[in-house]
Amino acid sequence: MNITTRALILLISLVTLSGTITAHLPYLSAQSSPTQIHIPLVMNPGSTGSSSGEWSQHAHNAQHTSYTAQVMPPPWRLRWIWNGVDANGRVRKVTSTGSLPRNVQPVTGGGRVYIAAGTDGVFALSESSGQQLWQRSGIGTINSTVAYDHDTQSVFVVSANGTLYKLRASDGVVLGQFATGQSSTLSLPPALLPDRVLFAMGNSVYAINKQKMQQIWVYNAGATVAVPPAYSPSRGLVIVATEPDLYVHAIRNSDGGRQWRVRPVHASRSFADPTRYRYGWPVIADGTGYVLVKVQLDWHTLWREWPQTNSAMRQMLSQNPGDQALFVLDLDDGTVPFIANVGHGGYGDNDYMPMGPQPVVKRLPNGKEVVYTIIRARHAHDARWDSHFGEMVLDNTTVSGLSGGDVRFIAFDWPPGEANPYLLTDEQPNVSMAGDILFGGHWEAGFALRILDRSDARGSFTNKITSQRLPTVATSHDNPGTCSFSTSHYCASGLYNTRPYDFGFYIYYNQGTVYDR
């Protein structure tokens, strides 16, 4: 199931008290006219120093939490679509290749949206209208999410040719560059800190002064760095993972020296299985002092029968350590404090299972951190029908009766009319979060739900955390009998692409399996 044509869809903008846009989410307010939502300015712990809390780099921040506290409450409405449709909902491509690279996320800053576009370079769009403002080509193939820096009013871009480029955000002019002499086709977005840019290329991790574009330090990992660096402000550590040796490295941000190096995956696993880090990224739970690292496992792990209680899950993973897909490491020494009850899944088929979703780390009002991701338990038909939205705790004090690595199930009423709701394990959606709203990016439809009651008594398979179903975004609506085409791209009576969905938005109209083109 290859997604070869991707539309950028902007359905909302958040506005602060000062009137400056501070975040962009997959959805926007469904008022009849644009509405300012007045919210407090939010700065994440370990912020890059930006004056706003917007999604300015890959996975939102240098910790890669994929979480923002800023929320646009529903109802939502469509604002614009870029590289997607014509006026009648038919396919219209803007990029010359017709596709965007794997793992690329749109980021925002300075009133613009920036998109890494492979051989087409980088595009900048107006956040309010979607109008293309500039395109920067001639800097190699851009396979990695770019990063907007408020301090320098620049966009930092990692090219597959091994060069870090600094572009002027207003017009895309190249202001500076740093060449590594290495190259990589992997998705390796930069991480922005207050004074420097961190990025990986080849066997190395670099810290570059973002003003002068000069090297501060370089770390030689001794093997290919397969993931973008993540940063822990509390420990001053940079975390990466390497292949084919499958090590996780902690690098001191002060001098680029190694703090620790561990191989969390079981000895029975190897790069050839495949067991790989690529197309994932380390996620820092800085308040708890952990880094979470997801691995890609082979297709056969799909068929493991998963129990529905935490004790049984932990016993199964203890007896089958090669099936452990998410590792929690102590930032201080790299040790594994507990087993994470999370199984492998992703957009797989025909003996292939890719990386799958990366965890989201959310800090609760009481200061505790929890993880949101896709978990497995008790299939509906066979093992491909056993995934669910879930929450994982990181200690024994956040939820009464649970300890680190234990998971809780979130109710999600899909498919329509299904007695035992599920998500497909060979179609696990990617996950991100805004406030209490959880997003699942599936290849045919984007899901959204608001978490309602996550009290301690809830979370078991039979008494799940409750949620409110929010609008779906389907790739194409292919049942004209329920809704005729509308410029609102909204259907209140039920969407249908290759399968039925409930109310929500569609990108294309009557265009079939666009994602397979």
Mean pLDDT: 88
As a whole number of angstroms, the C-alpha radius of gyration is 22 Å
Q: What is the count of DSSP helices, taking H or I runs of 4+ residues?
A: 1
Shape: globular
Helix content: under 10%
3D structure, described in words:
- A hairpin with a 4-residue loop joins strand 20 and strand 21.
- The N and C termini lie close together (10 Å).
- This protein has 517 residues and is mainly beta.
Briefly summarize what is shown:
The protein is built from one helix and 37 strands. The chain is an all-beta fold. The model is unreliable at 1-6 and 11-51 (pLDDT under 50).
Q: Which secondary structure elements does this structure contain, and how are they paired or packed?
A:
Blueprint: E1 8-10, E2 14-16, E3 21-23, E4 38-39, E5 67-68, E6 80-82, E7 107-109, E8 112-116, E9 122-126, E10 132-136, E11 147-149, E12 154-158, E13 163-168, E14 174-179, E15 191-192, E16 196-201, E17 204-209, E18 215-220, E19 224-225, E20 230-232, E21 237-243, E22 248-252, E23 258-262, E24 283-285, E25 290-294, H1 310-319, E26 326-330, E27 360-363, E28 369-376, E29 387-393, E30 407-409, E31 430-434, E32 437-441, E33 445-451, E34 467-469, E35 472-477, E36 490-491, E37 504-509
